[in-house]
Amino acid sequence: MYSIGYDIGSSSIKAALIETATGKSISVVSEPKIEMEMTALENGWAEQHPDAWWTHVCKATQSLITGNNIKASDITGIGISYQMHGLVVVDKDGKPLRDSIIWCDSRAVEIGQKAFDDLGNEKCAEHLLNSPANFTASKLKWVKENEPDTYANVYKFMLPGDYIAYKLSGEINTTISGLSEGVFWDFKSESISDWLLEYYGIDENLVPKIVDTFSSQSKVSEKGASESGLKEGTAIYYRAGDQPNNALSLNVFKPGEVAATGGTSGVIYAITDSLSVKESSRVNNFAHVNYTTNTTRIGKMACINGAGIMYRWLMNNLDVSDYNEMNALANTVPIGSDGITIHPFGNGAERVLNNRSLGTRMANINLNNHGKAHLCRAALEGIAFAFVYGMEILKSDGITASVIRAGNDNLFRSEIFSNTISTLIGQEIEIYDTTGAIGAARACELHKGDFETFGKRIMENDYVMGFKPSEVSHDYEAAYKKWKNELEIMLENT
């Protein structure tokens, strides 16, 4: 028997088929074959129609079933991971009233900031663990203010994963973890943040029914089955936003465990049982997948926007063939890149820098002595230093890392990158070859409560290698100190 997991991204929909008895990944597919389009009617806007996600979910499902010569009845569970912070609004018939306002849309920033100021920074931090910022609740307020006719017809709002679950089952529901990412959850009262909804003038009846993250949330309907190719009655056992799900995929559940990803942007996601909000202006705090009203599990997330995109930009602008060649070039240069520093903050405002946009800075280049090998090393070190800087912020907010697990992506496959981080934070980094879709598929088994077996299967199927701290750390520390001093000067002058 098998489970299927979906990862609803803004670029593509990934679907994974895993063998339930072993947790082994059988197949992973992606739809569409080219990147999905976004609509941007104004600068800073980003929208996608939610039915486009559904179309590609159906295609991916049918591809897995036919491509692996299995029957729909062989699939016994469904797990869903999805792009966080998006807004879907539907009418009483469940039809979308407008395109989804997705995660990277920034139109509601001023609405969230005004709410933060009016309601009080301390109250928002203590109850929401975040500013209302540009999260889902603020986006819904934007619709209310700017599209009153649309808002008047809203029956329920949903997050992207909620909508896919609805299309499969015909039932509208959500999770506490999902509500927390939209700042609809009050961690102090352990209930819906009704006072924020009242401030925004949003009817609490628009909130979907809450179901447990690991549970039989709903079942595939006759309509959902006919469109997707799945069997009617197949249970949806799990749903979570992409970053909590990435942590789950790496077996990160306990306080002190940290998940790291190094894609276009970089994320450090640390688990704690504390409601500390000391660094709430620089990190986000959400209910982790195993949060309950009886067990506090918070995911503290530090995001580095300028991560993989920095290394890709460099590859595209140097005369190199691929990342392997860049890594080989970088290995010819000593620690510290012979004085060159790169600060990779050229992908928009950085929350870890208090939402400042610094741009990417390359410094100390000697035109007689330095070449592309030095730039490759400086880029890897600069991105790694940004991760270390993020870890320092999390540490100041009470995080003491007991284990760090990362996906097997381009950055963490680089020995320079992983060794630099490992040495500077004094902690081994474990590398696993997995994806969000695989994690979502495996999570179908967690409604049974056996987290120990879940973790063992990740180790058995996915463990690649570990990077341990160097016994000689002086050169790493000196290079990071130089990089950090230059960053502080940049921040003072901005």
Automatic annotation (TrEMBL):
Keywords: Kinase, Transferase. InterPro entries: ATPase_NBD, Carb_kinase_FGGY, FGGY_Carb_Kinase, FGGY_N. GO terms for molecular function: kinase activity. Residues 2-245 form the Carbohydrate kinase FGGY N-terminal domain. The keyword Secreted does not apply. It holds the Pfam family FGGY_N. This is Carbohydrate kinase FGGY N-terminal domain-containing protein. It comes from marine sediment metagenome.
